[in-house]
Design a protein that fits this description.
7 helices; 158 residues; 2 domains
Amino acid sequence: MNEPVIRDIWVYLSTSPLLGLTITLVAYGLAYRLYLKSNSSPLANPVVTSVAMLIALLMLTGTSYEEYFEGGQFVHFLLGPATVALAVPLYQQFSRLRQLWLPVSISLVCGVVIAAGSSIGLAWLLGGSTKSRCPWRPNPPRRRLPWGFPKPLEASRP
């Protein structure tokens, strides 16, 4: 009796953007259960585990990231408010953070260095370019008119 119901749900979800949302939530739920069964081991981080599950599922089914993200964008949309909501408990612990300013500062510096280094290292290992244009470097000079103003772009006329 359950088989037709499950088949009907699958037919509906597979043609709907809700499939991305559903598999994201199921993957996270499974990853969180694995995390709890491993006595909250940091090696079984539910975010990393669920991302690995999603990558494997998308590769096995041949689903493009764009197709998946049609439904996954709902979770992406909710990450902004969730991140902002973290400010409340952080503010409530502000006096404790002030007491621990040195370890927190050292951790932040180490995190930034490791994140930047691992990004550059991964780009190098995967054959990508490790050189990028600095966002604060000015654009190359444009041709200027004799009185100093940049040459305007010519408007196309119909």
